[in-house]
Amino acid sequence: xxxxxxxxxxxxxxxxxxxxxxxxxxxxxxxxxxxxxxxxxxxxxxxxxxxxxxxxxxxxxxxxxxxxxxxxxxxxxxxxxxxxxxxxxxxxxxxxxxxxxxxxxxxxxxxxxxxxxxxxxxxxxxxxxx
Length: 130
Fold this sequence. Notes:
Layout: E1 3-12, E2 16-19, E3 25-34, E4 37-38, E5 45-47, E6 50-56, H1 60-63, E7 71-84, E8 90-103
Antiparallel strand pairs: 1-3, 1-7, 2-3, 3-6, 4-5, 7-8
């Protein structure tokens, strides 16, 4: 089952490079999306809903094509880890790991291109006397 969320980009973080226990480098970037819901009739905001999504490795370049304010739909998977804190308590951490970004409507990065109006072509064999 695919998960996705729609909203406007509020923040695109910097790429973080993290050293793993195995000695390799892992890259990640966090993006904050305003996915607040609005009343369909009044247009009033129901409640704030700011979602943090994590892009990693080769998925980072997808979000870097967008700008703050762009409306997007982001597909993601939920992942989780279990760990013990310093007090010996078991804790859980959940992440929303993004893997696909699609624009909704026009984005700020797209230029406005106007098309020439279509001119109707006369039809052959119509009701015209000539």
